[in-house]
Design brief:
- The strands form 3 sheets. The chain has a 5-stranded mixed beta sheet with strand order 5-4-3-8-9. Strands 1-2 form a two-stranded antiparallel sheet. It has a two-stranded antiparallel sheet with strand order 6-7.
- The two termini are 26 Å apart.
- It is built from 6 helices and 9 strands.
- It has one domain: 3-Layer(aba) Sandwich (Glutaredoxin), CATH 3.40.30.
- The model has no long low-confidence stretch (mean pLDDT 98).
- By secondary structure, the chain is an alpha/beta fold.
- The chain binds benzoic acid.
- The site of benzoic acid has 9 residues, from helix 2.
Length: 159
C-alpha cells in the first residue's frame, strides 16, 4: 500500500554522511517537530536526477527555506557514500542527503520501482512530499518518467 496524505512517516533508520563519515539518522530526528520537504529520486548520478531534479532544489533552497521549511531532504535507494558524493558534486550543502541503502524506507512507503530491466535493481519512484511533524501533508508522485509535479518549482507553488 502506498503512503497517503494524512499518514505518518514510518519509524525507520536511514544513513547520511556527516564530516566524511556515514551516520545513522532516524525518521524521528528528521521529521519530529519540523516542516520537511522530502524528494526522492530513482538514482544518484543518473541523468534526469543530476541535470534537473537535484539542481532545482539546490538553486531554490534559500527560497524554499524562506517559505518556512526546516529541512530539504533528498533520498534514494543508493548507499550512503554515493549519496554523499552526489551531494558534494552538486554543492547541495543546504540539503540533507539520505541513503535508503536497502530500500526499507521506500518499501515501507509503498513507493518502490522495479528497474531490474535496466540492471538498476529496485529503486524509488520519483516523488516529493511536504511533511509536517512526521505527517504527510502533500504527496506528488511522478506518473511517468518526467520531472514535473515533484520538481522544486512545483513544490514551492504549494508551500
Ligand atoms: C534518470 O535519468 O534520472 C534515470 C535514468 C535511468 C533510471 C532512473 C533514472
Amino acid at each position: 500500500m502506498t503512503i497517503n496524505v494524512g499518514d505518518k512517516i514510518p519509524t525507520m533508520t536511514l544513513k547520511t554522511m556527516v564530516a566524511g563519515k556515514p551516520k545513522d539518522i532516524t525518521s524521528e530526528e528528521i521529521f519530529s517537530g519540523k516542516r520537511v520537504v522530502l524528494f526522492a529520486v530513482p538514482g544518484a548520478f543518473t541523468p534526469g536526477c543530476s541535470m534537473t531534479h537535484l539542481p532545482g532544489y539546490v538553486v531554490n533552497a534559500d527560497k524554499i527555506i524562506a517559505k518556512g521549511v526546516d529541512t530539504i531532504a533528498c533520498i534514494a535507494v543508493n548507499d550512503v557514500f554515493v549519496m554523499g558524493a552526489w551531494g558534494e558534486a552538486h554543492n547541495a550543502d543546504h540539503l540533507l542527503m539520505l541513503a535508503d541503502g536497502n530500500g526499507d524506507f521506500t518499501r515501507a512507503l509503498g513507493l518502490e520501482m522495479d528497474l531490474t530491466a535496466h540492471a538498476l535493481g529496485f529503486r524509488s519512484q520519483r516523488y516529493a512530499m511536504i511533511v509536517e511533524n512526521g505527517t504527510v501533508r502533500t504527496l506528488s508522485v511522478e506518473p511517468g518518467p518526467g520531472i514535473s509535479i515533484s520538481a522544486a518549482e512545483s513544490i514551492m507553488a504549494v508551500l
